[in-house]
């Protein structure tokens, strides 16, 4: 066993995991506040990445302006999505809302294909390309910087939720909408805000993922891996998304390196099944409280 | 009672669920400032619906206020959103307590700070813990693990944080032991006395409700059938039989449980 190789794979795995964690964060936020299982998370990431292409290539704006613009436009889109198709579903059956988000995913794919075409694309190179060495281990700069950004975002939200009163409003809304209203919490505003923020995070995640592997309209499949991450971490746990993200990233890359690429999915989904057997609510998810 | 305009004035409201089921049929009642008013009635009479109509939580359940008006502090509640109404000073403590189970006791109280200015609301945490020392002991525990009585305390505590002008209380005694019920009602009376908060109290436990209320309304099938100051209501023969369980014709007739349900009188207000 070559320890250098082993640790390099590990670093790459942690890097991938960081991206999973950020994407998971976008999912968890929505689930935590609105109890909507957002199947369109991968497509929202893809949309963000394509909007970035729109600004950086289409309008030929510099990268430092394109990224914030793409994030803002994605946020607006998130708000529109919530207002137009999620809000009317308020109070409907959870499965119906779930189906609506699947539909939303298809609509977003269609939109992207109409505007940018179905071919895979590469993003403009904006990550510094000097190799990073941690000790002797080499880390791809793209993965490294993406991980740094991801870590900052997830860390920021962890702190915000510990200290900010809005975190309580969010969880209260998720727990019992009518009761949240009766506390004076502006429930529709919580909904809008959460979708806007989640769409912005998804856009950042999409741009980071796209900068490593390029983008294509079927990047939404990435959302499936994100789903594995959040189920393992617990659908409503930010910390869970972080830890499960890194965990899944590691397992996936190790499986890819030592067993072969085709075992990646097998490894992560086996992990999913195992976690579901042992802890059905995820590693850090909330237990339903049963009072006897 | 008081000369000033009532804090809550319900005028002839009709409520329909799902556009098909009419629950309230021309109900009127008013709560004077600083008073505790009890609203009694059997199951399904529409008591909770009345409260939800006032706090506008009705719309979440596909109910609609078809006609009539509800004035809170002189202004119709029709223009307010449910959360806006809370900020104006009308707090609804819902039936079945509805605490946020996954949040700690303190976080539950924090959630209620949205009803008011944050710094002012924060100052009232001490007040809540003074009324309910038990909540202070368990402030870091999850609300879901509190006992029913403690959850009811928390529900009322959240109302205190919001510092409302009126609290709508929906069956605070639901599922509580007699001892807890007494404690809760003692505190309700204290809050009314010390904070000057008006209250509209929906109850099944008529004796308890009459002990704290100044005025009472009795409703059946969506209408008020009888109202009056509580001292008069407690003397009313119908109220005694149907709500206070004292029996209309003396107790010697209730010899076995088989007979107990056979009311000797017909409710006069029905007919």
Detailed description of the structure:
- The complex is a heterodimer of chains A (292) and B (271).
- Chain A is an all-alpha fold and 292 residues long.
- Chain A has a domain at 21-216.
- Chain A is 73% helix and 2% strand.
- Chain A has eleven helices and two strands, in the order ααααββααααααα.
- Chain A has helices at 3-34, 41-58, 63-86, 94-116, 141-163, 165-175, 177-182, 187-213, 222-233, 238-258, 264-278, and strands at residues 132-134, 137-139.
- Chain A has a two-stranded antiparallel sheet.
- In chain A, a hairpin with a 2-residue loop joins strand 1 and strand 2 (137-139).
- The model of chain A has no long low-confidence stretch (mean pLDDT 88).
- Chain B is of the alpha/beta class.
- Chain B folds into two domains: 8-235, P-loop containing nucleotide triphosphate hydrolases (Rossmann fold), CATH 3.40.50.300; 238-271, no CATH class.
- Chain B is built from eleven helices and ten strands.
- In chain B, the strands form two sheets. Chain B has a six-stranded mixed β-sheet with strand order 6-7-8-3-9-10, sandwiched between helices.
- In chain B, a hairpin with a 2-residue loop joins strand 4 (63-72) and strand 5.
- The relative contact order of chain B is 0.15.
- The model of chain B has no long low-confidence stretch (mean pLDDT 87).
- Chain A binds chain B through residues 91, 165, 168-169, 171-172, 175-187, 286, 289, 291, and chain B through 55, 57, 60, 81-83, 86-87, 91-94, 98-103, 107-108, 110-116, 118, 142, 144-145, 158, 162.
Features:
heterodimer; A: 292 residues; two-stranded antiparallel ribbon; 2 strands; 73% helix; B: 271 residues; alpha/beta; Rossmann fold; 2 domains; 6-stranded mixed β-sheet; 4-stranded antiparallel β-sheet; 10 strands; 36% helix
């Amino acid at each position: 066993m070559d320890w250098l190789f082993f640790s390099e794979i590990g670093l790459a795995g942690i890097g991938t995991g960081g991206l999973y964690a950020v994407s998971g964060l976008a999912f968890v936020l929505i689930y935590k506040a609105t109890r909507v299982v957002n199947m369109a998370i991968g497509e929202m990431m893809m949309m963000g990445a394509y909007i970035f292409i729109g600004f950086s290539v289409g309008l030929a704006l510099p990268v430092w302006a394109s990224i914030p613009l793409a994030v803002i436009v994605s946020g607006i889109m998130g708000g529109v999505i919530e207002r137009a198709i999620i809000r009317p579903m308020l109070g409907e059956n959870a499965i119906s809302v779930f189906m609506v988000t699947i539909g939303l995913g298809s609509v977003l794919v269609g939109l992207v294909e109409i505007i940018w075409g179905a071919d895979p694309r590469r993003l403009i190179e904006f990550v510094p390309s000097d190799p990073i060495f941690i000790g002797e281990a080499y880390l791809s700069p793209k993965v490294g910087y993406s991980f740094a950004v991801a870590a900052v975002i997830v860390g920021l939200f962890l702190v915000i939720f510990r200290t900010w009163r809005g975190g309580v409003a969010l969880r209260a809304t998720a727990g019992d909408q009518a009761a949240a209203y009766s506390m004076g919490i502006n429930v529709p505003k919580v909904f809008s805000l959460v979708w806007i923020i989640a769409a912005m995070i998804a856009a950042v995640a999409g741009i980071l993922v796209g900068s490593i592997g390029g983008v294509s309209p079927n990047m939404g499949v990435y959302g499936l891996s994100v789903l594995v991450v959040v189920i393992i971490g617990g659908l409503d746990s930010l910390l869970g998304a972080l830890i499960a993200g890194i965990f899944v990233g590691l397992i996936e890359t190790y499986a890819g390196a030592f067993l072969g690429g085709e075992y990646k999915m097998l490894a992560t989904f086996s992990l999913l099944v195992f976690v579901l057997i042992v802890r059905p609510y995820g590693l850090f998810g909330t237990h339903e409280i049963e009072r006897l | 009672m008081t000369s000033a305009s009532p804090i809550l004035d319900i005028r002839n409201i009709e409520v329909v669920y799902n556009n098909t089921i009419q629950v309230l049929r021309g109900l009127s009642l008013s709560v004077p400032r600083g008073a505790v008013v009890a609203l009694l009635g059997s199951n399904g009479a529409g008591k909770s619906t009345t409260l939800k109509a006032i706090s506008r939580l009705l719309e979440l359940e596909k109910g609609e206020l078809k006609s009539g008006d509800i004035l809170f502090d002189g202004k119709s509640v029709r223009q307010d959103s449910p959360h806006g109404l809370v900020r104006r000073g009308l707090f609804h403590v819902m039936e079945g307590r509805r605490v946020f189970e996954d949040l700690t006791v303190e976080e539950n109280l924090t959630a209620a700070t949205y009803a008011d200015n944050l710094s002012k609301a924060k100052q009232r945490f001490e007040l809540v813990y003074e009324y309910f020392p038990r909540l202070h002991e368990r402030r870091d525990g999850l609300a879901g693990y509190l006992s029913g009585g403690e959850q009811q305390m928390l529900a009322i505590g959240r109302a205190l944080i919001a510092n409302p002008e009126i609290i709508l209380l929906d069956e605070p005694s639901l599922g509580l032991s007699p001892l807890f019920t007494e404690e809760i009602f003692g505190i309700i009376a204290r809050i009314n006395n010390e904070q000057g908060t008006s209250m509209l109290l929906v109850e099944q436990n008529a004796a308890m409700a009459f002990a704290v209320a100044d005025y009472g309304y009795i409703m059946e099938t969506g209408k008020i059938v009888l109202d009056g100051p509580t001292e008069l209501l407690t003397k009313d023969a119908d109220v005694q039989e149907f709500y206070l369980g004292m029996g209309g014709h003396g107790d010697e007739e209730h010899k076995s449980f088989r007979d107990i349900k056979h009311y000797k009188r017909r409710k006069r207000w029905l007919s």
